[in-house]
Specification:
GO terms for molecular function: hydrolase activity; metal ion binding. Helix content is 25%, strand content 28%. It has a six-stranded mixed β-sheet. Strand 1 and strand 2 form a beta hairpin. It starts with a strand and ends in a 7-residue tail after the last helix.
Amino acid sequence: MLHYHTHPVTAFQQNCSIVWCDATMEAAVIDPGGDLDELLAEVERRGLALQAIWLTHAHIDHAGGTGELAARLQLPIVGPHPGDQFWIDALPQQSAMFGFPPAEHFTPTRWLQDGDTVTIGRETLTVRHCPGHTPGHVVFHAPQIDRAFVGDVLFAGSIGRTDFPQGNHQQLIDSITQRLWPMGDQTVFIPGHGPESTFGRERRSNPYVGGT
């Protein structure tokens, strides 16, 4: 079975998730924005073998620790979609602007496209391309446990910002209604910030996309 633990990192309290297969104890880390020593201590405490970094998008609070972590442990970087190349290129400027430690440059080992899959141990998750917050944003869907790791696409009671370069409000709404809602009302999503919720709850009550 697939398990996960969410650990908020940096002053932005970004929900970095460690996901693992309990049959193999192999793990991936989703969006290591920083506080790497804390994350690695959590991995060690659980007896996991970290195999990969998965990225939903390349904003500094989600990707700031990626280059260092990949170099430190020789891990492949999987994702995001190529639309976020310019955000990766801008990580040094992002880190300076928001007061983060200098972000190391990196090149993803593998870019992701809509419909791709990622595997950790014996567990496979589906990738959906969900642009709007950033053009290259992706979401990781684990139907076997009714979970989705959605980055900054959707939050409990809110949606992702679209006022950053190449953000697009209508694209974001379309991503939520056309890519997330079909995963099912029962699906619990882990957002990039704040508490978990379900797609059903947000469809009913979220003021930005409720009733869609």
